[in-house]
Design goal:
6-stranded mixed β-sheet, 3 helices, 144 residues, alpha+beta
Length: 144
């Protein structure tokens, strides 16, 4: 049964589930927000209007994802490839997400590569790369 304290984030559920599956027993916690440290650094190496380049701390990360789920709902996340390195202290995951931009109904499909640093069975740093053109095209497309 999903944790009710994260119910507002359900539109990003496929992403959170994929990350949790990818990291398996490298981390402790059931939900994505349970497997990050309070001082997590979430860094994105792309510019998307409304999304900060660096997010520091779990509270700010939760706020950023709250804005995300107010604008995008994901139907699925797939094509997962996991590379564990540095004795399980670093994981590199490749994956795709598929969703809908709520304001326009436009389909959103994107590819990502994330480099995840783990200490004491929690994520301490996340560096994200994505297909910026796919995001731009979906976010600027006209409504159906």
């Amino acid at each position: 049964m999903p944790n009710p304290k994260y119910a507002a984030y359900e539109p990003a559920g496929p992403y959170f589930d994929l990350v949790r599956e990818a990291l398996g027993d490298l981390v402790d916690g059931e939900h994505f927000f349970d497997i990050v440290t309070d001082a997590v650094v979430y860094e994105v190496l792309y510019d998307i209007r409304g999304w900060p380049r660096v997010i520091q701390g779990r509270a700010d990360l939760m706020a950023a994802f709250r804005a995300y789920v107010d604008n995008i709902v994901l139907q699925s996340a797939d094509k997962l490839i996991v590379h564990n390195t540095d004795n399980g202290n670093v994981a590199v995951i490749e994956y795709q997400v598929h969703g809908t931009i709520l304001a326009t109904g436009v389909k959103y499909d994107n590819r990502f590569c994330s480099i995840i640093k783990i200490e004491n069975r929690k994520i301490t740093h996340w560096r994200d790369y994505m297909d910026s053109l796919a995001a731009w095209n979906a976010l600027t497309a006209q409504a159906h």
